[in-house]
Amino acid sequence: MDNSKKAWAALTLPLATLGCGGGSVASTATGSGEVVAIVPTPTPSPSPTTTPPPVAATPAGYILAKSLDGAEDLSASFDIGLGLQAAWGTGQIPGNYEADEGAFRFICGGDGKLAKDDPVVYFNQPGASHLHQVWGNSLFDARTTPSDLAKNAVTNCNDTAYSLNRSSYWMPALVHESGEVLKPDLVMVYYKRKISSSAYCTPGNPKFAGTCVGIPSQIRFIFGWDSKNPTAPVKGASWYCTTAHGHHANLDDAFNAGCTAGADLIADTGAPNCWDGKHLDTPDHRSHMSYIVTDPHTAIGRCPSTHPYLIPQQQNKAQFRVTEDMYGTRPDGTKYSRVRLSSDGMLPGAKAGATLHADYMEAWVTAAKKLWVDNCIEKALNCSGGDLGNGKQLIGAAQPAYGWRNPNARVSWSPPG
């Protein structure tokens, strides 16, 4: 095996053992719904508030929600105002997003951790997964729970000691055939939903899509390509490029559509937005969530009866700068990708990038989450850069700490130890 193949092999595992798209029932930790108060990291550190009781977890790997709010609230032991600033320096209020829909967005750095861990699928099994690119909370390993995230203030989505979004987000790493890992310049994170007063959230209205609620506390799920149904059509995951038209199922197609050096290549993952209202996790880490189903006769989209609650849709756009060595040209003039996802080895014969998927583990301070739901979502505002729609803005959520281009966009990676 030549060096480039050895490097690639080190980042992937055989189909039978790889994770992120599926996993066994035993992979969910008992008591992984435990909640503690959020504590900042500055010295001296404020005293934590009382630890709420853990979320109930069944032996079968289901984690039950306490209510439609999810688990117990995550409460800061400090004034959340310490994590906020005047929006864009002036306190301005953003304009409308759509007449009946609001959006809340922010920017995360692409300098997050790389790890062959997956605390959702392979809990307490270090190194059991393919390589992941993480953004959000800096704490990430095979044993991470929402309780752990709550206690760690360091995040590249909300860069302040008084961070209010301590959630974790991850996707398979993008790897060059040389073995180098390509890291994004940034990740744009979105939450979008119809406003509660709209026809889409009103039972009895012909347009009714589902009962509108917020993001449940401590929910976690996987979306995009599914390793348990590897040849099924992929929902919620595609690639697009700033010099090419359309969204594409794989990287070969993106490069053949005109994605060239100097462009930005985006891995776009959009989560299901219908929830069963009962579970924060299920054994396959997917069944408690569903996409809206469109009636082919009426073209009206609705949450299925098994998942009647419409929550803000979580979406990620990981942005990579394209270089000439990321693609090649065949004798017939067609392009092929020289970069692949670390999970592509799970699907024999898969085209590069065809196994795109993402994971989410929620850990918002409840009071801060309520601000963007009540203002950005419910007032149909177009909130960006951590703007909360009330004249305030999350500190460190408008641009990565290093600027718009990741100074370490290519790295060598080897397992720790």
Can you offer a commentary on this structure?
There is one protein chain. The protein is mostly beta strands and 417 residues long. It is built from 4 helices and 27 strands. The strands form 8 sheets. It has a 6-stranded mixed sheet with strand order 12-13-20-9-3-25. Strands 4-5-6-24-11 form a 5-stranded antiparallel sheet, with no helix packed on it. A hairpin with a 4-residue loop joins strand 7 and strand 8 (181-182). The longest helix is centred in the last third of the chain and has 12 residues, at 366-377.
What attributes does this structure have?
417 residues, mainly beta, six-stranded mixed β-sheet, five-stranded antiparallel β-sheet, 27 strands, 8% helix, disordered N terminus
